[in-house]
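Case study: CDP-Glycerol:Poly(Glycerophosphate) glycerophosphotransferase.
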Amino acid sequence: MLAWFKRFSFEWTQKRAFQSYQSVNQEIIFYSESYNYWSHFEQIIRCLWEDHGQRIIYLTSEQTDPVFIKPPEGVTSFCIGKGSVRTSVFVELEGPLVIMTMPDLGVYYIKRSERVKHYAYIFHSINSCHMVYRPRAFDFYDSIFCAGPHQVREIQSLEKLNNLKPKKIIRQGYPRLEAIANDLDRHPSKSNNNSGPNSAIKVLIAPSWGKNALLERHGGNFIEPLLKAGFDVILRPHPETHKHSQHILKGIHARCHKYKNYTLETEVASTASLIEADIMISDYSGAAIEFAFSTQKPVLFVDVPKKINNANYTDHNIDPLEVFIRSEIGEVIPENMLYRMDHYITEAIRKRGTYTDKILQIRKEYIYNFGQSSRIAANELMNILANSTI
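Here is what the predicted structure looks like once written out:
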């Protein structure tokens, strides 16, 4: 009870400080549910400050968010928590422009404010948006910043089927891809080239979350054999797996922590494991596409049941990107063949040179403005801001 009261008191004080600051500083507002989403905002905010001199208000739900503890130049940050204080902040929010990467605005407890002129959504996944997201996930946004043409088609189809007013669609691209690629260029020595027969292959396991996701269905059953076979294994669970499936992670830890070649990574905002890994094992996670598109390394996709949050997604007659792209950027592995995962890994590594050009061509087809997406987003946000303050 005391801990709750201290947290509530802190968040309420932050709310008052935010509203006091905002009353004299009508700046662009970014809201982040956790630090894990900062990587989708960081370069855009930097371009807003460096190219346009535009200051930012950054709202976060985590007291441990480094951007709250030590905000970068041009950013003023406040922590509003995840409970009733946050709900009240959004109800009372006012300003010309609010940017988020949280779906379902206006559908559940986070409502639109009548005093906000424009809400913009920035994707935190390259995946399609008509199957894995809920049917009304984007209905109450004014503009959508899309990673690629697949998301544009899907948003337009959602608008048509639901008789919605067309939103402003920005063909932005995906800044996180560029951040990973830039880190890879800066630290090429971290990438294991496996030039000798005794070089350990680094395997990154980074699946999605939910009842049909890889870890929820198979736990450590396929991980321990890889460790015994001598692979260096990095397990990178989805943040929601930490929240909802701790019992599964504890079971994996009990089996695997004794192996020196096992690493559990909890910081998904980091790019280190993406750079170091030679190959990824995943399911339908957007992280798999990020990995392939930024590093040109292959992914092994375990063919678990699809993650479907929109039962009517087939009404759009659009195949989800995360389904059909699997065989283009890696290999699809039947669930009943998990026991042969070591074979699939070594075979994919053997022919990984054949993936590079293919992945680059596919990235060019499905991702807008690679290398320029943050600057394009910043310019578009400034245009929206100008029109919202007239």
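For the exam, be able to explain this: Residues 194-198 have pLDDT under 50 and may be disordered.
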